[in-house]
Structure formats: C-alpha cells, structure tokens
Amino acid sequence: MISARRLAQEVRGGLSAEAATIAALESIEEQSALGAFLHVDRDSALAQARAVDRRRSAGEALGTLAGVPIAIKDLLATRDAPTTCASKMLTRDGRVESGWRPPYDASVIERLRAEDAILIGKTNLDEFAMGSSNENSGFYPVRNPWDPSRAPGGSSGGSAASVAAGLSWLALGTDTGGSIRQPAAFCGVVGMKPSYGRVSRYGLVAFASSLDVIGPFANDVADAALLFDAIAGPDSRDSTCSARAATPCHQGLETDTSVQGLRVGIPEEYFQAGLDPQVEAAVRRAADRMAQAGAKLVPISLPHTRYGVATYYLIATAEASSNLARFDGVRFGLRVEEPGSDLGQLYAKSRGRGFGREVKRRIMLGTYALSAGYYDAYYKRAQLARALIQQDFHTAFEQVDVMLTPVSPTPAFRLGEKTDDPLTMYLADVYTLPASLAGLPAISLPCGVTQATDDAPVLPIGCQLIAGAMQEPLLFRTANALERLLSDLGTPPCPARERSRASDFGAAGIGG
Asked: What is the pLDDT of residue 504?
C-alpha cells in the first residue's frame, strides 16, 4: 500500500482522487465484517474526491492531504454525517442513520477539509470512548484485522482497524488514557497521542475534558506526522488549546534519522510482573537497536506509576459524570417517554435505555466520587496523585530526552476474554495512563510480532515512546529513527490488508 504522502503527491500531480476513493470504498464494503465503520456515505466521499479532481484540472493548488481517504472516529462532529459516539443515546431510534447531525464541523475536520482530504466515513468505538477493546460499542464490536476472534483495542478500535486492514490510508482517533496507542499496538500500526492542548478539542464530544486529545493513525511514522501537522495548532474556540504555533513535524523526517547521543529512559516500573515475556523481549530489542545506533539507555524510575490506574479511573469517571449529564432525553437524541411519566422518569428511562453498561458504570463511579462527603476522599486525592505522577515525569526528563516502554502488557486478547472483569480490562491501559495524566505526547509503533502457536496466530507488538510536553518534533524524529532501525525484522503483513482493494491500488502501481 503506497504511503499517504505519496498518494497526495500523485493526486497533486494528476492521479485521480476518485480512483483512490473508490478503492477505499470497495475495501470497506468487502471487509464490512470487521465492523470498523459505523457510517459510510459513498456519494459524499465520491463528491469530495471529484471536487479535488476538478480543482486540480482547473490549475488550483491542492493541500497536503489531497485525495487521501481518511477515516474519522465517530466522536468528532461532522456536519454531513451522523455523530453517535457509538451510543444509542445519540440516535432517535437506536439506528446509526438516525444519529445526531451536528450543524458544524470539529476544528480538526475543518482542517482536514482545508487540506483536501477525503473523509471516507465514521469509525466504530467503545461507547463515548469508554473501553479498551471496542466491545462496548452500542451497535457491534470491531474485530482485529490480524485475527477476527481478537479485540482491536479501544476505544479507537475502528480507526486502528481501518488503517491496519487497508480500508483508509489514515484515520483520526482520540486518546483519553490510551485509546489511540493501545489499538495501534494491537493492530500493528502507528498511533500518536499529542500533548494536551496541542490539537483543538472543539467539536470533540467530551469524555474527560482534562485528558481527551485527538491524534493520528497511520501505516508509518512519516504519514502520522503528515496528518498531525494538518490538525495541530492554536484554536480560539478551545480555551484549553495552546496559543503557541505548532512546529512542523513531517518536514525533514526522511533525512534526520540519527539517534546518536539521544538519552533514552527505560522506566523500571514498566518492566515488572504482569508484562508478557514476548512483549518485553520485543521492546527490549527495540532499546538494544537504539543503543547500537548510538543512543544512551538510561534506567529511570517513575515511582508513582503504581497509582496511575486508580488515579485515572477517579478523575476520568468524575469528569464523565459531569460531561454526560447533558444527555438526558430532552436536549439530545433518544427520548423514552411514557404516558403519565414525570420528568425524573423521562430522564431515568431515556438514560437507562440509551447508555450501555460500561457507560452507566463509569457515570455512577464518577457521581459517587464527586458526591458530598466523598469529594475530598476520592477526587481531590486523585488530583494530588496526578500531580505526583506529573512531577515524576518532570524529574525524569531532566535526565533523558525520551522514554521507551511497552504499550500494553499483552498482545491483542480474545473478544469476551475480559468483559466480565472490568478491573482486568482497566489494567490493559496501565502503561499508557501515566503519560495521559501528565499531558505528554506519546506514540505507539510496531516493534515485532508474537510467535504463532496452536492457540494463537501471529499478532503485532507495539512499543511506546514518550517525550516532554510540546516536544512532538523530537517524538516524531525518534519514532521515525526507531522505525528504520527495526525495518529488517521482516514483519508479516496484516492478513486483512492483503485482501484490501486500496492495498492493491498501491501494489499494482500508481493508478491501481
């Protein structure tokens, strides 16, 4: 499959954007069993592509993403497509097509349109982004393109699966506690979480407002940087967005591939009991490759990492309880009203039927943590613990430039394996939560695969790089260098991608 940057270059040079879009649409249709998409409007996508082709024919300059089909997580407002957050709560009758249609685009969507990207469809997710397996969707689960019996990760599982299976060249996801990085690792693609405040959240349906960020999925680091550059930067409509201009990250990646002298922190807390041996071996091999190329490996400690899961699930659920209070059956979406019922019963029935089990669990946990008599004992103490986690990172970055860690304790687990034990599911994010709590940029990239056995096929393994706040250029340079250092591993292709028409479009040469 040709890269997104190559595709955009060829479209600017004369390749039909419509042809690329048709290849993606056919791939989505043929692999609909993956459940990656909730909504695809073929006519709208083709109209966007034809408009790009007309503008090129008229001699107009095209954007950096000209003609590139991009999948959008259905947590982002789009004026021309339903936005459901994978929840029946934001539909009129429980169907995606009756979902809420915002009167505006999210800022990141505006920026993609300005760069002439083709918005190919809205991807599936854990309902309101609450989950680590994409089994909490209010409609149907997403299946891992490497093995349909396994989870793609969550909550951005649809976006990760779309890129891994070759259904789109790029995708947008959101990351609150690992929801870009963990699916990227499970699906064998690149997924990047920006610093908090680096990308505007305007038009993102909020889960936890102090944690939510929007970021890219791609097949390689350079494509991820290209998409990041398109969406990053100040936005006056988001008061939490940094007013500082974003430094371009894609430019120069092809030539700046040295890690000589780079100080790479290896946190001891990320390599302890509970980490799958194959995952640990792959990540340590990545560290060894960096050391052989001239980087300095520095053992470090992040002592308050052990409080990450508890801290996150107090802060995130408390903020979710507040944010989701607006979905009450009156102002948005599903309304369940029976003759003679009062307002309280309307709220109860609408929310009871509209929200799924995991969303209800988190709302109740958050409401409890914020309730009178418990606020200081739970939410306030969680914020104090968050400050300690942030200080750990601040201290560590005085000694190192970046950190290298696992993304998830295990490769992709089976669908249904963890659904009956919420705590076990929550622990799947143990290595991604701390960077989220600290607001730091982090990226997941493939670093190997598991050995096939009678019980499990080959599955991808991801490693995580973490940089200091607003250090996205350094993060992308390091990730790009590491990607090259691991390029000789001979990783097998994703089985679903081998069946993709969009992959054939590139494999058969430009033009398909």
From this structure: 79
Helix, coil or strand: residue 414: strand
CA distance 486 to 167: 25
C-alpha distances in angstroms, 206 versus 142, 176, 269?
Answer: 22, 10, 31
3-state secondary structure of 316: helix
pLDDT band at 361 (very low <50, low <70, confident <90, very high): very high
Contact 230, 251 (CB under 8 A): no
Say whether 169 sits in a helix, a strand or coil.
Answer: coil
Answer yes or no: are the C-beta atoms of 466 and 478 closer than 8 Å: no
pTM beyond 0.90: the answer is yes
Domains defined along the chain, listed by start: 4-307+383-507 (3.90.1300.10)
Provide the pLDDT confidence category of residue 508 given band limits of 50, 70 and 90: low
Q: What pLDDT shows up at residue 510?
A: 63
Tokens of 507: 């494999």
**Residue matched to tokens 């490693």:** 463
Residues 90-139 have pLDDT tens digits of 999 999 999 999 999 999 999 999 999 999 999 999 999 999 999 999 99
The per-residue pLDDT for 338 is 84
The predicted-structure confidence for 395-430, as pLDDT tens digits, reads as follows 999 999 999 999 999 999 999 999 989 889 999 999
Backbone φ and ψ for 24, nearest 5 degrees, come out as: -65, -45
Residue 74 CA to residue 71 CA, distance in Å, equals 9
Q: Strand 69-73 to strand 118-123: parallel, antiparallel, or no bridges (unpaired)? A: parallel
Pairing of strands 190-193, 118-123: unpaired
Q: Is 456 exposed, middle or buried (0-12, 13-18, 19+ CB in 10 A)?
A: middle
Separation of alpha carbons 81 and 307, rounded Å: 40
In this structure, what are the phi and psi dihedrals at residue 257, rounded to the nearest 5 degrees?
-120, 15
In sign, the C-alpha dihedral spanning 316, 320, 322, 323 is: positive
The CB density around residue 343, as the number of other CB atoms within 10 Å, is: 11
Helix, coil or strand: residue 367: helix
Contact 462, 407 (CB under 8 A): yes
- Could you give the residue numbers annotated as active site? 73, 155, 179
d(CA 481, CA 292): 12
In the structure encoding, which two tokens stand for residue 445, read together?
């990239």
Residue 482 pLDDT more than 60? yes
Q: How confident is the model at residue 506 (pLDDT cuts 50, 70, 90)?
A: low
Q: In whole angstroms, what is the distance from residue 233 CA to residue 214 CA?
A: 12
Quote the CA–CA distance of 182 and 425 in Å, as a whole number: 12
- Mean predicted lDDT score pLDDT of the chain: 95
CA separation for the pair 246, 232 (Å, rounded): 6
